[in-house]
Specification:
2 domains, six-stranded antiparallel sheet, five-stranded antiparallel sheet, 13 strands, 14% strand, disordered C terminus, transmembrane, MetI-like, Phosphate_PstA
Length: 515
């Protein structure tokens, strides 16, 4: 290195402004990614934390109870206002209320405020005043809370028994009946048991006193969960947060996708990506082998390569239109005419489904796999091919035992890029099979076990539907953030799996070549 002259230090030899610019670009990219993940994590995961419920007394004497959401400045600097989630939509027509900060006289957090999570109308907030059982027995005062917890635990057990009976006994036998079977005694007994469980869940109600002095009667059968956030310890809140995250991952959506979980969407996304990968990999690899190893390297081959690279830039909605016209209406309609004529005009394969969505995304990501695989094949030295042929191997043996194993990391790189793109696509799926609500996953215990004709849910479309088509966008936004974070994590897990497999194969192949 040259000595430093004066107060100006020269950059090390071989470096320059370009290197610092590249390093800065990488740093900014990582910071942007970290900021995105932090935003999704904070906004999404805080939704499951039991927030304290405030009792707000206004200057005019009016009272309201709710969870504080945010505080924003008023126009022209005239003050600030707060947004509270007050619940009780069946009473007030909305679950949100803006309050000017200057109009607030007092804010407290009484420990007896109760938050109910209901099947309909969302949350209810108030003080528990009475509990009436299905036999007419009424409990008031402090004894109502432990009685309510015991009754809700009993209702949870009854719901689980009802769902298990319906899913494991009744629905399989109903499907067998639709296929031409006879009604047996076990089905009649199961239906009678189901009616008994449903009757045991009905009856009973609780009474809430709202902050403004109103009364709200809620049937117990409509109550899913109940809590007193202001009386919960940090450990209790942590347990409740974990249970909320688990329900989000394991349950189905409800209330127009503004509540509940996303398990069907997780399953549908992963299954569709796996099917897409199985479909696109062999076709992409074979096409790359033909272009690089078999075809004459002339003008026509160069034109084909240019066309393949241009296909990678076609908007995804164009592939959706192609899939709708060719796969759904063309191939699917023909299959219905050949094999499902008795079911028409209700289509079986002539409508959107898991198979057509996977084929459409396979076509969408095919150029990525072809380009990545062909570049991997081009990097293999010609001496490897010539050495195999010189030792007496046929051209097929040379391709299958020498070239393809060495190009496997490049193939998996193409699959990784294909998975990353396909898992986040939404536009083509809207045309070829995704559904707003499909609580049953496309896999069950009935033959053929994997039902490719069924519609499915997708995390990307779930985000789009909850954010733009929900009746209450304000309530759906925390779930939108949580689902977006989950989609990023699902893509990350799928990519890491492929990367690990690529590294394993690359290491193994390198060890074999060293031997």
């Amino acid at each position: 290195m040259r000595p430093v002259s004066g107060s100006r230090a020269r950059l090390p030899r071989g470096e320059g402004p370009g290197a610092w610019l590249a390093a800065g670009s990488v740093a900014l990219s990582l910071l942007a990614l970290l900021a995105l993940l932090s935003l999704l994590a904070v906004r999404g995961l805080e939704h499951f934390w039991p927030a304290p419920v405030a009792l707000v007394v206004l200057e005019d004497g009016r009272q309201l109870a709710g969870e504080r959401v945010r505080e924003v400045p008023l126009p022209e600097g005239t003050g600030r206002e707060r947004l509270y989630r007050t619940g009780n939509r069946d009473l007030y027509g909305t679950r949100w209320e803006w309050v000017a900060v200057s109009a607030i006289a007092e804010v407290s957090h009484p420990p007896d405020l109760v938050v109910l999570e209901r099947r309909r109308w969302g949350e209810a907030i108030g003080r528990l005043t009475a509990l009436e059982s299905e036999t007419g027995e009424r409990v008031e005062g402090e004894g109502a809370w432990p009685a309510l917890e015991a009754r809700l635990a009993e209702l949870t057990s009854l719901r689980q028994a009802r769902d298990a009976l319906r899913d494991e006994v009744i629905l399989p036998r109903v499907r067998a009946l639709e296929e031409g079977g006879d009604v047996d005694r076990e089905l009649a007994t199961a239906n009678a048991r189901l009616r008994a469980l449903q009757a045991a869940m009905e009856g009973g109600r609780l009474t809430l006193a709202t902050a403004d002095g109103g009364r709200l009667a809620v049937p117990l059968e409509q109550v899913l969960r109940v809590r007193r956030p202001n009386a919960m310890s940090p450990f209790d809140k942590l347990v409740a947060w974990g249970e909320g995250v688990w329900r989000f991952l394991s349950e189905g959506p409800r209330a127009a996708n503004t509540a509940g979980g996303v398990w069907p969407a997780i399953f549908g996304t992963v299954l569709m990506v796996m099917l897409m990968s199985i479909l696109v990999t062999p076709f992409g690899v074979l096409a790359a082998i033909y272009l690089n190893e078999v075809a004459h390297q002339g003008r026509l081959t160069r034109l084909v390569r240019i066309a393949v690279r241009n296909l990678a830039g076609v908007p995804s909605i164009v592939y959706g239109v192609f899939g709708l016209g060719v796969f759904v209406y063309g191939i699917g309609g023909t299959l219905d005419e050949w094999f499902f004529d008795a079911a028409l005009p209700s289509p079986t394969f002539g409508t959107g489904g898991l198979l057509w969505a996977s084929l459409t995304l396979a076509l969408l990501t095919l150029p990525v796999v072809i380009v990545a695989t062909e570049e991997g094949l081009a990097r293999i030295p010609d001496q490897q091919r010539e050495g195999a042929l010189a030792l007496g191997a046929t051209r097929l043996e040379m391709l299958s035992r020498v070239v393809l194993p060495m190009a496997t990391p490049a193939m998996l790189t193409g699959v990784i890029l294909a998975v990353a793109r396909a898992a986040g696509e939404v536009a083509p799926l809207m045309l070829v099979g995704v559904a707003k609500l499909a609580p049953q996953v496309p896999v069950d215990g009935d033959f053929p076990f994997l039902h490719l004709d069924r519609k499915f849910m997708h995390l990307g479309y779930h985000i789009f539907d909850a954010a733009f088509h929900g009746g209450d966008v304000q309530a759906a936004m925390p779930l939108v953030y949580a689902t977006a974070l989950l989609l990023v994590l699902v893509i990350l897990v799928l990519n890491l799996t492929a990367i690990f497999l690529r590294h394993h194969l690359s290491t193994r192949h390198g060890a074999l070549t060293r031997r």
